[in-house]
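Ticket #4471: complex job returned nothing on first submit. Input attached below:
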Amino acid sequence: MSEREFEAYLNLLARTLKLSEAQRQRIAGELRDHLEERLADLVDDGMDRGQAILAALDEFGDAHVLAHDLTTPQSYRRRKKIIHTSFATIAAAAAVALAATYLLPTNHRGHPPQPAALAESAPAEAAAEEARAADTGTESAAGFVYIMGETQRPGAYSVPGKNKLTLLQLIASAGGLVEDQAKDDLRLRVVRRQGEKSELVTTFTYREVMDGGEPFYLEPDDLIRIIADPGRVAEKAPTMVTFDLLPLFELALDDDNLEADAGSPGLAKLQERLAGNLFDVLVGMGHERDVKTVTAWLGVLTVVGSPAAITDAQNYLDQTQQTLAKRATRTASEPQPQE
Amino acid sequence: MSDLGEKSRRDLFRGSLDVMVLAVLADGKQYGYAIQKKVQQASGQTIKAGSLYPLLHRLETDGLIVATWEEDTGRPRKWYALTPAGEKKFRGAVADWQAMFARIQSLVLPALRHVTNHPQAT
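Support reply: We reran it on our side without changes. The output follows.
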C-alpha cells in the first residue's frame, strides 16, 4: 500500500545498491517503514498529503547518494561530494551533446533554452570541483567506472583510489556476465576519457580477460562496454541504472562508434530505453530540489523521450517548482525555525 | 545557543551523533524512525533520514548494534538493540566525553568569570 512516489524512490535506490537482492529488499523494507511512518506523522500534523510525501522523501536526499552512503558507510562524507559532481557532469554533458548533435541542425526552435544556458557554466564548475576532489587525495584519484552491456548489474562502480581496480575485478563486482551468452563471441571495449573527448583504448576478447595474464587496471571515468558479437545481440529489457545514461549518450553520439558496431542499438533503441528511465531519474534527482538539474534533464527528454514520458516529467518539474515556491513563501513569511 | 554559530553547532552535533544513538538504544531496542525522533527531541538538532540510516548500518557492521525484524505493525520493521560490544563502547565514549568536557570547562568557565567581571570598553 505504499505510495507511488515512495516505490519509485525505493526502486531507484535498490537498483543502485550494489548488494544482493535480499540485502536490497531489506534496506528498501526498512526505509519504506520509515517513509510510511513519517508520512502519517506529517499528515497528522496537518500537512497536505502530496506535500507530506515529498517532504518525507526529501529527508532521505538523493537516492544515488544514499545508495552509496549505505554501501560504503565508512567514507560516506567524501563520496557524497564526488557523486554530486558526477551528476552535474552527466546532466551537462548529456544536454550539451544531444542538443548540439541532433537538435540544432534540424529543429532549432523546438529546443528548450535551459540546457544550453546551463551548459556554459556547469562543465566548468564540475571540472573545478573534480579537480578539487582529486587534489585532496595523495593516491590515484577516486571516482567511478561505468560498465554496460551484457553484464548482470550494469552501472557505475566506485574506484577507491587506493587500490587499483582491474577489469576482471570490475566484472566480478558487476555480477559477472549475463547467462546464456555465447561467451567466446563477447568483446570488452574499454573507453578511457582524455579531457573532453572519449578515446577508444582497447578491445579485449572474453578469453583474454578471463584467462588471466596481465591485469588491466582501470582509471576513474573509464567506460567498459561488453558487446555481444554483431548478429547475436540478445534482446534485453531496459533494466539499466541511471549512471548508464552518460555512456549511452556518449556512444550514441559518436558516429564512428555507431558505424563500427553493427549491433549497436542506434538512436531509435536509445530513445526507447531512455524513455523508460528518465522519469525515474527526474524523480530521484528532484528530491534534491535542484530545479536546474531537473530542467536540464527535461531538455534531454524533450529530444529523446516519448510524449508520455515528457508529460510525466513536465508535471513533475511543475510540482517541484510549486513546492519550492510555496516553501520560499513560507520561510519568508515565518520566522526561521531553530534547526 | 545563537552565539556558537550554525557550523560549530552542527559539527558538535555530528561528532556526538554516534554516542546519542547508542544512548537511545541503551534505553531499550528501537527502530530507525523512533531513534531519529528521540535524538531530535533531545538535541534540538535535525538529523536527516539520509544520514541516520548509513550511520545505523555502520554501527551494525561494526557489531555495536544488532538488528531484528518484526511484523507486529503490519509491515516489517527493523529493530536495533545494543550488543555487549556496543554497551562497552558506549560506556567508554561517555566517560571519554565527560572527561573532555570537564577539561574544556576548567579552561572556559574561569575565563568566563574573568570576562564578566571586567567588561571590555568598546
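Residues 84-117 of chain B form the longest helix (34 residues). Closing as resolved unless it happens again.
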